[in-house]
Amino acid sequence: MAALFAGRVLVANNSARDELDTERELARCLDNKVLLLYFAAAACPRCRAFSPLLRDFYVRLTDEFYVERASQLVLVYVSRDDTEEKQSRFLKSMPKRWLSLPFEDDFKRELAERFAVAAVPAVVVLAPDGRLIAANAVEEIRRAGPACFRNWQEAAALVDRNFLVAEDFDEVARRSLTDPVRRLKYKLGKKTRDEEEEEGGSAAR
Known about the structure:
This protein is of the alpha/beta class. The chain has a single domain (2-156), classed as Glutaredoxin, CATH 3.40.30.10. 45% of the residues lie in helices and 14% in strands. The chain is built from eight helices and seven strands. Residues 159-192 have low confidence and may be disordered.
């Protein structure tokens, strides 16, 4: 996923405003993770209503208090603000782990065109290999909250039973009751196929 920002600078949303501009820094922050591109503007009423929800969503999925694996999600804010001051003021109220493109970087416009973002807020969800998982997950996040990340993990082939939000535990416990049956069925099916191949080989001899 670092390839998407090759040759670009990403700014960490911390007090030092650290800049990530080397291939190694970008790879460390972006590779092997589900990437959210958040297109928004501080002056947009819809964005003002949605941003606190997205902030809480992100915190619940990246805070070790809620999950054991907090490194599978990264967010890059793609500002549609009309001044750098508005962008900076907005980011001060958002998580320190968020990244952003510098205000003056025209790559923001290119990203909007690439992912057909016509209106804000928009949350584009990308798999680690760059595949598009969701063109705009705003309504999904509103409706399902942190639970929707499980769908993104499965779509990105990142399913990890150690990465569970609190709400998932009951669901996983219920599924686990039928897991032994499924495993037994799979093993029986595999044994049958192996036996068929062996029988076929014996017939050939």
